[in-house]
Amino acid sequence: MEDFKHIKREGSGYEVKQYIAFQHIIGAAWICISILLIINTSYLKTGIVLLIFSILLTIVSFIPPKVSFDPENQLLIVTHNGLNRKKFIYRLEDFAGFELQTFRLGFIPLGCYLYANFKNVSHFKRPVISQSFSKRKMQEITNELEDINKKTIKNTSTV
After folding, report:
1. d(Cα 131, Cα 100) in Å, to the nearest integer?
2. Which of 37, 46, 69, 113 is the most exposed, having the fewest neighbouring CB atoms within 10 Å of its CB?
3. For the segment 39-55, what is each residue's pLDDT rounded down to a tens digit?
4. Residues 46, 49, 51, 53: is their CA dihedral positive or negative?
């Protein structure tokens, strides 16, 4: 199989790389704000409490889900490793396509999210495949996943 830029081969499937997004920047900004509050003001206790909570939130936000695309078994597996440890398995038979959403504040892009749409999954519970600030990066991931999906469909139709 060919090498991909944003997808890593792992066992019988592929793991999608995760990137820094808006929530990571917000968590890091809160840590900086709490450090400045501790150093530059007399609100030491407030700054320490804010620092502890912002570090915890940043740690939780930097634990990305593990998204595995398994074309041999026709599965998309999303494993959350944070506080809410759950594993969701989606059948590729019900796969309807990818959706790329960019959230903006005026002309400023806040983030770009790649969703997988399935026929039997509601619009609010669809899995996030990857996220980033860059729409181009998410489009490259979409193209790579569609290439893998086309090869899988071609291989299963010839068998």
Report:
1. 10
2. 46
3. 998 989 999 999 999 99
4. negative
Which DSSP string do the residues of 101-128 spell out, in sequence order?
EEEEETTEEEEEEEEEEETTS-TTSPPE
User: CA 88, CA 75: separation in Å to the nearest integer?
Assistant: 10
Structure tokens at 121: 């999954």
Which domain covers residue 113, as residue numbers?
7-18+65-158
Q: Distances in Å between the alpha carbon of 61 and those of 72, 80, 121?
A: 31, 11, 24
**pTM of full prediction above 0.85:** no
**In-domain check, residue 96:** yes
DSSP 17-64: -----HHHHHHHHHHHHHHHHHHHSS-HHHHHHHHHHHHHHHHHHT-P
Retrieve residue 37's tokens. 């509050």
Quick one: 85 and 57 in the same domain?
A: no
**105 shares a domain with 52:** no
